[in-house]
Amino acid sequence: MNGMDPLHGKRILLLIGGSIAAYKSPEILRLLQARGARVRCVLSTAGARFVTPLTLQALSGEAPRQDLFAAEEEAAMDHIRLARWADALLYAPISANGLARLALGLAEDLAGTIALASRNPRFLVPAMNWAMWEHPATQRHVAQLRDDGAVFIGPEAGDLACGETGSGRMVSPADIVARLALELGPGDWRGRRVLVSAGPTWEALDPARGLGNRASGRQGFALAQAAAERGAEVLLVAGPCALPTPVGVQRRDVESARDMLAAILEALGDRPYDLFLANAAVADHRPASASAIKGRKGEIPDSLPLVANPDIVASVHACPQRPHCIVAFAAETRPDVTTAARKLWRKGADVAVINDLEAGAMGGTENACTLAWGEQSLNLPRQSKLSLARALLRALDPCLS
Ligand code: C5P
């Protein structure tokens, strides 16, 4: 949890409708809380068939609101105040029946009255059988609700609880929360285009062997997520790593340094980028030759001739569509910041970010770094890679205007 998380301190009213997917709603609640959001729950009568009030009370520390006409519940906070308390309404899951009632503005239950009384953003996360989702009546309600300003999260296609396959599956709790963070984020980088390289590269020797490094990609992926949270359009060019793509981020997977350079130059030829975060741990060298067939043990030479890879930062700097700001990263053991920064500036970087390998830069979940640009420098202390990414992007604000 940290103050720069777009969900930190946000007040979310979680409305739980009547769908089997309601069993995942407590997980949504937990994930929102973990990111510092304040959550209150409203459980519909049908929702209460799938998840118990006690579960929600145990997790949120407060009994969920269930009944529009419960004198005790209304005395604690009436439904109009409850609607206005929330920064956002998250209706997850919402059933076909819930969508129909909301589209018509029916106010016969607590969810309906809250939806009418609130003027804040509303996010609807449908979950139902595919035939019900695709039915023209449901689609009419969806179109109406979109017109009224509701934002839909999903549904996705996949296996459904009823045993059939199709569109109607609720988006995963983690992706719902990530999407909410994008929607409720500051949006101050909207209109900006950010290119991020992440992960290691793999320089093949044959189909099974090659040269790689221990970069996990976590810091680069966190930078992509942090830029998306601020509303930027983000392209992540990732070397081989098994991390999920952050919500709202476009991804291109590559293998070698030369693949990475080609993907980056292709992206730059498309439309100009404001920022290039060259976070990938690109191999400086590759085997001089690679074989399409796996060599036998005895065929592997004792020494391996290497050739230099192109330098991606230098190539991007020399490119006619050079991004407005280039940030390069160095990971060294107990680095001398001035020497390391000068090396990156010489390649064309505007900002140098120096990581100390002893602070966990490679492979760990936490990191610390020093930024250096012009005469200025800034230390960002050890913290989670996501938290560090958010702080780093804030520090870059003056370089982008
Ligand atoms: O010179 P050094 O490898 O320490 O520089 C690291 C920085 O340069 C990183 O930003 C990395 O992404 C980038 N790099 C590059 N092309 C290479 C090697 C490193 O762009 N071939």
Automatic annotation (TrEMBL):
GO CC annotation: phosphopantothenoylcysteine decarboxylase complex
Family matches, as InterPro entries: CoaB-like_sf, CoaBC, DNA/pantothenate-metab_flavo_C, Flavin_trans-like, Flavoprotein
Stretches the record annotates as Phosphopantothenoylcysteine decarboxylase: 1-193
Protein name (record): Coenzyme A biosynthesis bifunctional protein CoaBC
Residues annotated as binding CTP: 284, 294, 310-313, 329, 343, 347
Domain Flavoprotein: 10-180
Top-level taxon of the source organism: Bacteria
Organism expressing this protein natively: Acidithiobacillus caldus (strain SM-1)
Function (record text): Catalyzes two sequential steps in the biosynthesis of coenzyme A. In the first step cysteine is conjugated to 4'-phosphopantothenate to form 4-phosphopantothenoylcysteine. In the second step the latter compound is decarboxylated to form 4'-phosphopantotheine.
Pathway the protein contributes to: Cofactor biosynthesis; coenzyme A biosynthesis; CoA from (R)-pantothenate: step 3/5; Cofactor biosynthesis; coenzyme A biosynthesis; CoA from (R)-pantothenate: step 2/5
